[in-house]
Amino acid sequence: MKRFRFPLRPVAVLRAHKELRAREAFAAAVHTYVAAEAELAAVRERVARFEAALFAGRRGTFDAASEAQSLSAYRRECAAEGAAERDAIAARAAMDERRTAYLEAHRQHEIVRNLEARAQTAHRLAASREEQAELDDLAGRRARRQQLARAC
Predict the structure, then answer these.
(1) Do the domain assignments include residue 118?
(2) Does residue 107 sit within a domain?
(3) Disulfide check for 29: which of 2, 88, 95, 143 has CB 3.0–4.6 Å away?
(4) Are the CB atoms for 78 and 47 separated by under 8 Å?
């Protein structure tokens, strides 16, 4: 049986590397997205605590200077929340883009693997047929020799 050789092996290797790079990029994008979501949750928690503190502070006496500072700090936290939301949205979009690229690379690699599996199956089948033909030929020769031996 001659050895199996897949002519698209270099393509399979390149597509496997491309898939690996796409998987790593997707994993990094997921990590970035999770970090952005955690940051957004932390900023939202700070804003909620600020709102609770502002609401609790209004029950006592009114001090314009401290209220102005508190309101200014609250506005900065709200701006930070908006920035964190934009970062989370951008991270989500990047993650979706990387997922799409990874799925495409995986699909392309899967196509080559399926072609290789089909080629291996065809090679095995051809080798089996060749081996069976040799065995049939050998059995035919043996039967012919036995017939000739009986005839003599």
Answers:
(1) yes
(2) yes
(3) 95
(4) yes
